[in-house]
Amino acid sequence: MRYNDREPIYLQIMNEIITQIALGSLTPGMQLPTIKEQAAIMRVNPNTVARVYALLEQEGVITKQKGLGTFVNTSTTLAKSLERKLAETTTSRFVSEMSRLGLNRAEIEEHLRQFLTRH
């Protein structure tokens, strides 16, 4: 995973895990790597992964089972909820970037309409 300089690494890792759940790559009940394993995979400090796991647990995205590991929450509505949240975040970024380019609402809508027509 490549990290950008605009956002803290722990947030990027959180968003990656949330995206994987929303897209179905990580499914309800699936066990996540240990903190140490995840840190090695993502090439970050284990404390960063521990922070990510703690925040995701607070949000109800994952659960820790003492002696067994960390698992994706088994809620059947979790993936759909995360998908909506991810779509909202992505849309917000898109609109912000388009606004930074100086485009107004009508121009943004027209660009989006043209894009969707092509794709």
Overview of this protein structure:
The protein has 119 residues and is mostly helical. It has two domains: 9-72, Arc Repressor Mutant, subunit A, CATH 1.10.10.10; 78-118. Helix content is 61%, strand content 7%. It is built from five helices and two strands; from the N terminus they run H-H-H-E-E-H-H. The protein has helices at residues 9-22, 35-42, 46-58, 78-100, 105-118; strands at 62-65, 69-72. It has a two-stranded antiparallel sheet. Strand 1 and strand 2 (69-72) form a beta hairpin. Helix 1 crosses helix 3 (46-58) and helix 2 (35-42) packs across helix 3 (46-58). It is elongated, with a radius of gyration of 17 Å. The two termini are 27 Å apart.
Short description:
This protein is 61% helix and 7% strand. It is mainly alpha-helical and 119 residues long.
- What proportion strand? 5-15%
Q: Do you know the CATH topology of the largest domain? A: Arc Repressor Mutant, subunit A
Number of structural units classed as domains: 2
Major sheet attributes: 2 strands, antiparallel
CATH architecture of the largest domain: Orthogonal Bundle
Helix fraction bin? 55-70%
- Can you tell me the overall shape? elongated
Widest β-sheet, arrangement of strands: 1-2
Within CATH, the superfamily of the largest domain carries the name: Winged helix-like DNA-binding domain superfamily/Winged helix DNA-binding domain
Mean pLDDT: 92
Helical segment count: 5
Q: What order do the helices and strands come in, and which of them pair?
A:
Layout: H1 9-22, H2 35-42, H3 46-58, E1 62-65, E2 69-72, H4 78-100, H5 105-118
Antiparallel strand pairs: 1-2
Helix pairs in contact: 1-3, 1-4, 2-3
